[in-house]
C-alpha cells in the first residue's frame, strides 16, 4: 500500500509539473511549434529522472566519505572514458589520477533531439572533451565534402581542447535523446600534474605534431580508435608492445633530438617536410612564480630549450617533485598554452 501511494504521488507530481509548464508557455505567448518541442523535451526529462536517479537527489551520498565517493564516480564514469586508448593505458599507469579525474573533472550533460552541443567556429570559454554515454549525434562541417558524421559511444569529441587552444571545426547536434559527459581541460591539467609521467608529455607532443601538419579541410572535432591513435599510444607507452585491445604491431617512434624548442611545431605546420623537433618532456629548465600564471593566458608564447640532464630526470616512469623542481606548471596546461592556436 505504501509503495502504491508513493507511485501515485510521484505521477501526480509529474503531471502537475507538466501542467505548470504548459500554463507558463501559454502566458508568455510562446509559439505552438516551440511549445510542443519544449513539452516533448520535458516529458523525456521526467522519464529519464524515473530511470536515472540523479546523485544530487540522494542526500545521504553527501554524507559518505570522500574516498568512497571517488570510487563511486570512477566506476560510474571510467567505462565511458575508456573508449579512448590513451586514457585506458594512462589508467593502468596512474590509476590514482584517473580516479581523481572521474571525481573532480567530469560533468554530465543531457540533450534532446535537435539540441546543438556546439557550433562551428565557436571558441569554448571552458575547454572540454566530450564522451557519449548514450544516444546518437550528428556532426557536420560546412564547405567540406563528405563532412557529415554520425557520432556514437565509440567516438570521442574535441580532444584537441585538452592539449592546445582549440575552436570547433564543425557543429555537433543531438540526433536522439543523448547523455554526454565532459572532461574539463583545465582540471585535467591541474590533476595530471600531481603525478607527472613522461607518457603524458610524449603523447601530447605527438598529438600536437600530427595536428599541426593536418590540412585544414581534414581537421575534425570527432575521433575514434584508429591505426593513427594506436601509433601514438605505442610511442607514448613503448613498454607496451602489444596493446591488449589490438593485435596491430606498430614500431615505437624513437626520439631524434635531445636539445630542441617547443616553437618548432610552428615550423612543422608551414612545411610538412621540415624536421619537427619537440622534446618528449615539455618542462622548462627554469621558471618564476610570476611566469607560471602566464602559462594559462591564451596567446602566451615562449621557447624553452632542454638539456640532457633535464630529460634525464624524466627517465623514470613517475617523476617526483624533488627530481624536477621546475615542474611547478601543469604539464597539460603548459602544452595547451604554449602550442599554436588551431
Automatic annotation (TrEMBL):
It comes from the Eukaryota. Residues 109-192 form the Cyclic nucleotide-binding domain. This is Cyclic nucleotide-binding domain-containing protein. The lineage of its organism: Eukaryota, Sar, Alveolata, Dinophyceae, Peridiniales.
